[in-house]
């Protein structure tokens, strides 16, 4: 995984302290990215294991570990990717309405987003509606700029403007907005030297 250059530090941050590399992979791995990927895969396996008494949330464990490793930029990028994808899935067939609220997208542009996802008969299955929604959101976010806070804030405002907004029942986005606005504070608290203020963790 990009920005995580040491499998041992990553494993320790995930709570796998003192476990050898062969706990995470069966074969000999040559480079560090593969080792990091094997640790990530192990976390995924454990989180997906229904027999595990202590069910872990993959996203929560990953984000916590990355924050412990001071990878705030990577956390922000992952959070933004997660927000865009889950929003696309949540709005699905209502994506055109959201597109109008966010960017005043023309009918022709909307059809262009949908075209690659239509079947050979020119139909777009309801279950595939998240795909043009995601394509649109990626393009829209790129035009907004590099600020993940601004993108999530604008997205929240756009969703709130929709008829029967999903934000009334879907509180995740509000929580995410709070999280991204607190990242700097969390980081400074986590990495404040002991003895400096009350924020040392």
UniProtKB/TrEMBL annotation:
Sequence ranges assigned to domain SH3BP4 DEATH in this UniProt record: 1-68
Pfam families documented for this protein: DEATH_SH3BP4, SH3BP4_C
Cellular compartments per GO CC: cytoplasm
Domain SH3BP4 C-terminal helical stretches: 77-186
InterPro entries: DEATH_SH3BP4, SH3BP4_C
Matching PANTHER family: SH3 DOMAIN-BINDING PROTEIN 4, SH3 DOMAIN-CONTAINING PROTEIN
Protein name: SH3 domain-binding protein 4-A
Species assigned in the record: Takifugu flavidus
Lineage, uppermost ranks: Eukaryota, Metazoa, Chordata, Craniata, Vertebrata
